[in-house]
Amino acid sequence: MKILVLHGVNLNLLGQREKAIYGQATLDDINSGLRELAGQLGVELECRQSNHEGQLVDWLQQAPGQYAAVVFNPGAYTHYSIALRDAIAAIAIPVIEVHLSNIYAREDFRHRSVLAPVAAGQISGMGVLSYRLGLLAAVELVRGGRNDGEEKCITAD
Ligand code: DQA
Predict the structure, then answer these.
(1) pLDDT tens track for 112-122
(2) Which residues touch 133 (CB under 8 Å, ≥6 apart)?
(3) pLDDT tens digits, residue range 11-68?
(4) Domains and their CATH numbers in the chain
(5) Beta bridge partners of 98
(6) Of 99, 78, 107, which Cα lies nearest the Cα of 23?
């Protein structure tokens, strides 16, 4: 199984950019941690970053057939890119939206993701762990489905 990790706009600046919000880890740090996790999970990983919406659309369109799922941090495109939303809606493989910061605890304009309704799910606010959980979710979704309402769900008691 091959999983594609896509990092969108401005995420090449991680480690230098607003560290109080996004942390110290660079994109290379994140990608190498994900590669290690992928090895433990027995899956192959490809990591790419672009600041260009059209490039991200091209990679999403090309993903089916090559990759089983996509873990995607779109950066600011999250909040307004109908082109990325349409690309996600157009492909049959699951796309898991991830964010380092908790977008719901920040400025109002970040509270809305135009992508979330067409994503398989969203993980927000866990720092680098958001990506790791995103990768786990991608692998579990592809291997075993969603398990909705089944005994594996964690309950309050
Ligand atoms: C982000 C959140 C976005 O609102 C922001 O524009 C980013 C990063 C995150 O990972 O927390 O660039 O996607």
Answers:
(1) 999 999 999 99
(2) 98, 123, 126
(3) 999 999 999 999 999 999 999 999 999 999 999 999 999 999 999 999 999 999 999 9
(4) 2-142 (3.40.50.9100)
(5) 123
(6) 99
DSSP state of 4: E
- Ligand 1 neighbourhood includes 25 CB (under 6 angstroms): no
- In short, whether 76's Cβ falls inside 6 Å of ligand 1 is yes
DSSP string covering 37-75: HHHHHT-EEEEEE-S-HHHHHHHHHH-BTTBSEEEEE-G
d(CA 157, CA 38): 32
**Statement: the pTM of the whole predicted model exceeds 0.70:** yes
With beta carbons less than 8 A apart as the criterion, state whether 51 and 76 touch. Answer: no
- On whether the CB atoms of residues 116 and 95 are closer than 8 A, the answer is no
CA–centroid distance, 101 to ligand 1, in Å, is 6
Secondary structure E strands in the chain: 2-7, 44-49, 69-73, 95-99, 121-124
For ligand 1, pick from 73, 96, 112 the residue to mutate: most ligand atoms within 8 Å of CB: 73
* CA gap 157, 149 in Å, rounded: 15
**Ligand 1 geometric centre to CA of 156 (Å):** 31
